[in-house]
Amino acid sequence: MPVTAALAASTLLAGCAGIGTPPFVESRSCASWAALETHEERLAESDAVIVADTITPDGTAEVMGFDANAYRVTVAAVEKGPLEVGETVRVASTADNCAARPYGDGDPLLGDPPLRLYLTDVDGSWRTLTPFDGVAPAD
Fold first, then answer.
1. 11 backbone dihedrals φ, ψ, rounded to 5°
2. Over the stretch 51-86, which tens digit does the pLDDT of each residue have?
3. Where are the beta strands (DSSP E) in the chain?
4. Closest CA to 95 of 71, 124, 123
5. Residue 83 CB contacts under 8 Å (≥ 6 apart), including other chains
6. How confident is the model at residue 16 (pLDDT cuts 50, 70, 90)?
7. Most confident region among 3-7, 18-22, 93-97 by mean pLDDT
8. Cis peptide upstream of residue 57 (ω within 30 degrees of 0)
9. Residue (of 125, 133, 138, 114) closest to 64 by Cα position
């Protein structure tokens, strides 16, 4: 009889755990960002490099499975890529979603324009190259 009681108890407890992943366990992967320290390195890695003179908040956009700040930016100059001067495009500001504060000291797209944006095209949507090297003051 004790074996039957132990078997019944273990079966009952097994049902609490569910099948597969235990409850309340969340997993996510974090991107590893390459350091792009020079303008030339950022330029080489970008699909487009522009100078934006007008930057307006425009909600959020999904970047690597997370919501990131999005903006409408007006292109003042094109240094690389298919965008045209005067064009307004939507750009997501890539965040470091594994950090306690995804935008560190603040979203770089909230800086004073004009700003140089190093952009990558992901399935027809523009986003900054990395959380750290996607925006710089325009010289």
1. -65, -45
2. 999 999 999 998 877 889 999 999 999 999 999 999
3. 48-63, 66-80, 88-92, 115-122, 125-128, 135-137
4. 71
5. 48, 50, 75, 89
6. very low
7. 93-97
8. no
9. 125
CA angle at residue 137 from 68 to 139, to 5 degrees? 150
Provide the residue ranges of all domains of the chain, joining segments of one domain with +.
Answer: 39-137
Cα separation, 135 vs 44, whole angstroms: 15
Contact between residue 69 and residue 60 where contact means Cβ atoms under 8 Å apart: yes
Q: Give the C-alpha separation, 114 to 25, whole Å.
A: 44
Spatial separation of the C-alpha atoms in residues 118 and 34, rounded to whole Å: 14
Q: Does position 6 have pLDDT exceeding 50, yes or no? A: no
**Sequence letter at residue 129:** L
> pTM, whole model, 2 decimals?
0.75
**Which CATH code is given to the segment(s) 39-137?**
2.40.50
Cβ–Cβ under 8 Å, residues 78 and 86 = no
pLDDT in tens, 100-125: 666 777 899 999 999 999 999 999 99
